[in-house]
């Protein structure tokens, strides 16, 4: 019976996440984790913590998920995202390089990390690999990157931003 209640609670957590009620989801998931531990639940807690911009705790939860046997690729990618959000590009790159089989998101994150680590040659290689894996997804990721990092950047002029946006939009 305890498992059933836990599954109902997990469904409620997922519903709250879908509604972007991350604080409530975190509280409920912490209650579930007090009763039952699993890599999937720690992964979910890490993702919720990232949405709340609590990156240190997100990484802690994701490390626990990884140690407990969770999906290595998903967890390493999530950890890399958390490190990138904190500006810790070397740690992000190190985690992504541990992945056995990289997908478009991993190559994209490796490219972004390489850019911020002043390694344009690797950045170009990784971006090309992402593009070859999935053009549409790469464009989507670039658009998101633009909205999060470029558009709000006060150091760039509107003309520079417009130039970059047009470059992204022209990707086929």
Task: Outline the structure in words.
By secondary structure, this protein is mainly alpha-helical. The chain folds into 2 domains: 1-70, Serine Threonine Protein Phosphatase 5, Tetratricopeptide repeat, CATH 1.25.40.10; 89-172, no CATH class. 78% of the residues lie in helices and 0% in strands. The protein has 10 helices and no strands. It has helices at residues 2-18, 22-35, 39-51, 55-67, 72-85, 89-97, 104-116, 120-133, 135-150, 158-169. The longest helix has 17 residues, at 2-18. The chain starts with a helix and ends with a helix. The relative contact order is 0.07. The mean pLDDT is 92.
List keywords for this structure.
single chain, mainly alpha, Serine Threonine Protein Phosphatase 5, Tetratricopeptide repeat, 2 domains, globular
Note the total helix count: 10
Mean pLDDT, rounded to whole units? Answer: 92
Major sheet attributes: none
DSSP E strands, number: 0
How many structural domains? 2
Tell me the β content.
under 5%
Low-pLDDT ranges: none
Helix content: over 70%
Question: Mind telling me the C-alpha Rg?
Answer: 18 Å
| Helix/strand structural class | mainly alpha
Any idea what the shape is? globular
| Succession of helices and strands | HHHHHHHHHH
From the N-terminal CA to the C-terminal CA, the straight-line distance is 52 Å
């Amino acid at each position: 019976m305890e498992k059933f209640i836990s599954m109902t609670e997990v469904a409620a957590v997922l519903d709250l996440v879908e509604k972007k009620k991350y604080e409530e989801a975190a509280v409920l998931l912490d209650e579930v984790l007090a009763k039952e531990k699993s890599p999937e639940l720690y992964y979910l807690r890490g993702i919720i913590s990232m949405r709340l911009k609590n990156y240190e705790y997100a990484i802690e939860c994701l490390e626990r998920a990884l140690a407990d046997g969770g999906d290595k690729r998903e967890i390493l990618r999530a950890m890399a995202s958390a490190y990138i959000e904190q500006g810790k590009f070397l740690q992000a790159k190190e985690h992504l390089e541990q992945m056995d089989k990289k997908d478009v998101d991993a190559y994209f994150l490796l490219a972004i990390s390489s850019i911020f680590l002043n390694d344009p040659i690797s950045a170009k290689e990784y971006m090309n690999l992402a593009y070859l894996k999935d053009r549409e997804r790469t464009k989507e990721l670039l658009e998101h990157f633009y909205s999060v990092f470029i558009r709000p950047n006060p150091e760039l002029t509107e003309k520079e931003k417009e130039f970059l946006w047009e470059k992204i939009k022209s990707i086929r």
